[in-house]
Amino acid sequence: MTLTFEMSTPLVDHGHAIREWSLACVRPYARIADTQHGPPDNWREVLDSCPVAISRHDRRDVEPVPDFTDGRWIKELHVVESLTYGDIWISDVQGQGIGHLVVNLTGTPEQIQRWYRPIVDEGGQTAFALTEPHFGSDTSMVATTATRDGDTWVLNGTKMYCSIGAHAQYVVVFANVDKSLGASGIKAFGVAKGTPGFIVAKANEDKLGIRSWQTSELLFADCKCNASSLDVR
User: Fold this and answer.
1) Residue 31: strand, helix, or coil
2) CATH superfamily ID and name for 99-232
3) Which residues make Cβ contacts (< 8 Å) with residue 42, sequence separation at least 6?
């Protein structure tokens, strides 16, 4: 049996077209994106100029990336690598985030229908808020609290380095409902953009590199979430 790691010619050609376009149309905005800590204002027009299909969450009326014999993951890897060859700023506007993936993995059927399906079917971006000022990925240290108040959960706390947090349609926020329960006391809550008490303290941190990629500081000050529909069990 012969095992080959070569990609199919159609996929290679598709990726090459994206790469050449990225060099010509994405890279010229690299300095602007780095300086203003965000993608150029005309990013949609830049994406519109791509001569071949690319995955887009902001428009559903465009042709999707075709299927190739290489399979989904090889295709997606090659497309993303080709897109970002010009500059990384394009990832901030192309990526959908991972908040909705958490809902799909751990949510109830009703929550999946409300929070996951619209993102997959209609487009949009979601965020994942775990890290806090005093820890990185150690979930046992979550200090953000969620307190039950009748038909609502009231969230209080601060989250850091939340990718796409400032402009995502909603953020999946990890909070502690009962510290005596240890890890079992940590739950995830979907908080929609614009919810009272959901405050974007800093849209983008000052970073040493990849400054165009949005990593936000988010505050939750008596932020109320509906208990029956937003707690991701």
Assistant:
1) helix
2) Butyryl-CoA Dehydrogenase, subunit A, domain 2 (2.40.110.10)
3) none
pTM, two decimal places: 0.85
Answer yes or no: are the C-beta atoms of 172 and 99 closer than 8 Å: yes
CA distance 106 to 116: 11
Straight-line distance from the first to the last Cα atom of the chain, in angstroms, rounded to the nearest whole number:
46
- Extents of the domains making up the chain: 9-94, 99-232
State how far the alpha carbon of 141 is from the alpha carbons of 150, 180, 186, 200, in Å. 26, 13, 10, 22
Burial class (CB in 10 A: 0-12, 13-18, 19+), 57: middle
Q: What pLDDT digit, counting tens, does each position of 9-40 carry?
A: 999 999 999 999 999 999 999 999 999 999 99
**What's the token pair of residue 20?**
């050449």
Are residues 38 and 87 in contact, defined by beta-carbon separation less than 8 angstroms? no
